[in-house]
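User: Batch of two.

Assistant: Item 1 of 2:
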Amino acid sequence: MFLRLGFITFAVVASVAFAVDVDKNADLVAKLRLANTNLDRMTLLPDDADWLFDFTKQDKYTFSPGGVINANSATFPAATGQGMTMSMLNLGPCSMLPPHLHPRAANYVVAISGTTQTYMIAENGARTVTEILQAGQMTIFPQASIHTMMNIGCENAQLISALNSDDTGTTNLANAFFSFPQNISGTVIGGGLNAQAIYGRVPSFGTGSSAGPHDCIAACAKKGKMIKREPQARNE
């Protein structure tokens, strides 16, 4: 069986899936990709403002439940052709990123704050690698590996992700798997389940983060520590 049932279940219970980035300036990106030289590219980005990306000013910058903010060719045209995406990962208490993979990039993740548990499966037959990241620690998700992460604390967690492509792509396991016909998906999970009915419960793409397991949320609430702090507005 090419997918583990437990991992599929983990993906299904996620309440929000990874967001799809919208092109900020598709025409400019097309011109940047066609530029013959770096000097030609520089003329297409004439202003200092073209080279500045503010993660905190993006729509997906939230901790309720969280968000994935990507600086890539779609959202930050200056990144076009640079071979890299920088992402800020915000996770509110108990929030998670659903299991997913990046088909065109390896992923280096560094914890800035909070306590985040990660899981990674590189391929069939490989063991599940799990880490608990705290500030100053990092892990690697190899290209196309399945991975997920969850804030296991009752305070916000923030991480920085560096990926070696300006167009990494993201494939969510639940959204992809349960979109197959019933005779495929139903057979893979052992039969007896209406996979298409499950697919109807898989959410569409959102900010990139979702509320996590109920037991974590309940434990934090019991401790009186279920705190979700939205970032304070910065002075202009």
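Item 2 of 2:
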Amino acid sequence: MGNLRTKDLSKIGYQNDQLRSLVINIASKNFKHHSKQELLDLLVEIKNNPEAFLENEETKKIAEKIIGKVKEQNFKVYELREEPIPCKIYGSKGIESSAKKQMEIACMLPVSVQGALMPDAHMGFGLPIGGVLATEQAIIPYAVGMDIGCRMALSILDAAAGFTKKYEYQIVQAIKNHTHFGMEGGLEIRQDHEILDHSLFNELPFLKPLRGKAARQLGTSGNGNHFVEFGEIELMENNGLGLEPKVYTALLTHSGSRGLGAAIAKQYTQIAMESCKLPRHAQQLAWLDMESEAGQEYWLAMNLAGDYAKACHDRIHKNLLSALGLKAMAMVENHHNFAWKDVLSDGKETIIHRKGATPAHQGELGIIPGSMTTAAYLVSGRGIENALNSASHGSGRAMSRQKANDNMTNSAMKKLISSANVKLIGGSVEENPLAYKDIEQVMLSQRELVDIQGKFIPKIVRMHKE
């Protein structure tokens, strides 16, 4: 059987002292000929599905104890408010009713303080994409999103305008050699970053087995609307970067925390939904109390995922610029799937969830992209309280992925891209330019939220090919 210890059981989720004692006692009698790993694997199966082991005499008592423990777990039942708390909607005419309804439900949570809906909003899980929600002493995993810390990163380069046209072949080769898209696989050369040495990978048992995948995916991008783009950015007068107002070559990337963030989101959403019972139509908005152990764990894990997402962008930019012999003169980054601690103007301490929304405090720089053929904007926040110091995270989808797939062919998309003078590597019809709202209209709808400091035009784009 090997030397099975309580520490081993804790690592696989057996936290109850009586249960661990029972397991060790039964294992010593009935599983003498199992290896330690075989026994641990069996115990994981029993923990995940105890009902399936009730008929087996050797595992019955363990399964019964687990089921009893589940029944004893504490949870609270909450009712929604009768009326939603205040929520300012920007660009209302361009937002589907289902997204507005989702936001209204979120604003009826008893922990909600204030809401805002950005002009790129569309329906999501729990909180709509483009939704911003302030809560008191509570964090909602689904109001952060599955791709925790999904972010934008812009490097303005020491290369004059026209670089992308002159060196298109070299840029394309660098992108093909030094970026990777999709759910599986990674770069040929193993990446390194201090984030992989973060103590939380060892301190939280749940995270320890995720470190290997995080290492493999470091410096890679996901699928869907994630991208790597080279293009040109025109900076305005008095921009917040302190650079001369002119046209520069730039690198713009969009991706998140990969499998690490998704696993964290899934784990703590399940915990939240088990401990916080809401009406069925609001259950995806289940929250964790910030003073609870699970709430504190999620907060730490969420921040780790955010730092990991930044590390991925760091590696992408460093690898590409090194391959092309370029240097960054300035860099701007921002999360748009995250939660922050913030104090409202009335002094109330809150957790601000931005699910597909850009932080836009007074003077805060951010990037708001369009589609693979349209402009992205470098912006400076205006610190508007009604918007919870936020702006859109992009142009937002005008069609679902399925509808985009049904309404566009590969040949038609190629014509669209060619007419915009964009070189596309990969990509899919689900992400075609017409699947997105008009970025110019979105920017017009939030003109009171941000000031435009630069306009980026994509020239060479790589996305995941579905």
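The first strand starts at residue 76 and ends at 77.
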